[in-house]
Protein: Alpha-1,2-mannosidase, putative
Organism: Dyadobacter soli
Amino acid sequence: MPVDYVATMIGSAPSATESAKAHSEAGSELKGQTIPAVGVPNGMTQWTPQTRATETKCIAPFYYNDNKFQGFRGTHWLNGSCVQDYGSVTVMPLSGELITNPEKRASIFSHEKEQSTPEHYSVWLQDHQINAEVTALARTAMMRFRFDSGEESFIIIEPNSDEGEGFVEVLRERGEIVGYNPVHRIYQGSGQPAGISGYFVIKFDKKFMQSGVWLGDTITPMGRILTGKGNREKLGAYVGFGDEKQVITARIGTSFTSIEGARANLEKELGTKTFEAVRKSSREAWNEALGKVEVAGSENDKALFYSALYRTKLSPRLFSDVDGSYPSFAGGTPLQKADGFDYYCDFSMWDSFRAAMPLGIILEPKRAGDMVQSLVKKAEQGGWMPIFPCWNHYTAAMVGDHGMSVIADAYAKNVRNFDVNSAYNFLRKNAFEVNTNVKSYEAGQGRRAQKSYLQYGYIPLEDSVWQAFHKREQVSRTLEYAYDDFCLSTFAASLGKTEDADQLRSRALNYRNVIDPSTGYARGRYADGRWIADFDPFAKRASFITEGSPAQYTWFVPQDIAGLQKIMGGKAGFAAKLDTLFEQGYYWHGNEPNHQIAYLYAFAGQPWKTQQWTRTIMRSEYDTSVGGLSGNEDGGQMSAWLAFSMMGFYPVAPGTDQYVLGSPVFEEVSIETGKNRKFTVKAKGVSDNARYIQSATLNGKPFTRTYVTHGELLKGGTLVLQMGDKPNKQWGAQDTDMPFSLSKH
């Protein structure tokens, strides 16, 4: 079964790759920032062992190298990120003395006495002599605790409010603990209430022998209700079940709407299912999702691939209850109803537009459409299309405006289960209007630096963006807006909006305004047209570039690689610059702006170098160890790159229907692309040495293109690649074989 290959701990320890050590700046960049999440694909709440008791930015709930278990956390951590957890709750079993402080109550645990799968996690808590396990569905979980010591059995419940604003209530007559944890924003409106809370209902299968609440170190036996006063004190509830050896089971419902919503989710989703039945349902959900791709290859490669696929399915997260209720975007009230779709949030858009969202379009088109409809509803409720929506709110966390890419890509690939006209109107508003409302602009609504982008065709160095997390990075913003404008142009053209399409297509060439023809590299520019002096394209960081070097960002022109080549003096100069990046160690796979670069040789008549370098990256930047990611996972993007690349193709320019071919790892990959339809890639004779395509056929006919289309995937069929250990420099080298570029078409 595919789920049996998943190693949930990959990326939960610091990266062991050389490139991460060479290119990372912040300590968090060296970490995958993943957690061993238990639940179902794209579930509302995931459950993880907790080793860090905080919702502080950039601190994940779990790190592999920690050795103390503080409880099971119902988490809304954005997988692999450097943001915050929010609205979470932790459940911890204890034996003997009642200790509430998370560090003091924690138990030593060993990875040797631990089982971790996508559907189940169990661990032996040495200090308390308890076996603790959890399994989960989309909005609910079950925990089972076997108390072996014969001492008093306690269970602690803690809403993880760093601000000390949590709420708990003990409902003894119902055998329940209920509560909530208010959510606060980071980035825009940092520290302000987000207007929502994470709600929970926990129902136990045995009668309480004792119970109470606690605030800091003060325990109140028989206390029933406690609301934090915002003094940054920890608080929670506890229950005791007597001093016999026993097994206690807890059923948990979660929601973002209310305690009643959490209880309804618990009753409808979990019902009277046994622990084993819930575990079986979760396992089946993972097998169905992962099983959409069948691979034939080594056992280690299957583990690498299915573990990556698992990590692409942890976000965006389901946000609506079983009855469709969800809190309004950017405020929380009133409650909305998702009619005919599931509402999702936590879109790590700057990362996931590249490959994680496109992968979902292939494997889960209905869910991809629901995600797009969720973005549309956010725009309708908030007034602007969000750019990086997290914790059900606007943020200006990263540069770009990549809702345009995600939505245009879905439409181009025949996903239509969303309000197309509303989507277009709000995307158009982002692209053509400047948000002049100071308050809402500060809150994250509207494109950053849009006024100067429209005025100059680029963002000059004088225009710093104080109302954003990344406050300068003018060249990166310009490059990304040019690509986003291209995506919207394709959407506009498809809808017959010719005037918009023409204008946006012209703006898609704005990248030319920040590529210096004298160097061929992306370079900061002043409003009067002067280029910044003292320029080093290989400097690890530059103020006008986002999280990387000018040399790395130069290649972010996915819509017009042919045009970029002209600035660089043609295909030969372009390929030579790529060679410099790779051969001299300037490529950094651990951050997303680099992800399409290895595939760009295919645009220059040298696809064999794409085959060479994608295979090298796969083998040097990923493995199945706990440090097997070379940078932050970032909402599934690091793993989506790997999943696509192992299958043998990659979406260089989402918004077009093309996938550029690389070097598949597997002898055979079969992708479910519709009912009774599969697209199969056969790589004959493939190995790490035999990584080069010698010849190809598609459905039995000779094939020399370096890309396949989404339509070809949907239709089903077989692409056969004959592989060899030496490059065939003729295959795919003609202009007619190369992928789309705006300047060519």
User: Anything to note?
Assistant: The two ends are 45 Å apart (CA to CA). The mean pLDDT is 96.
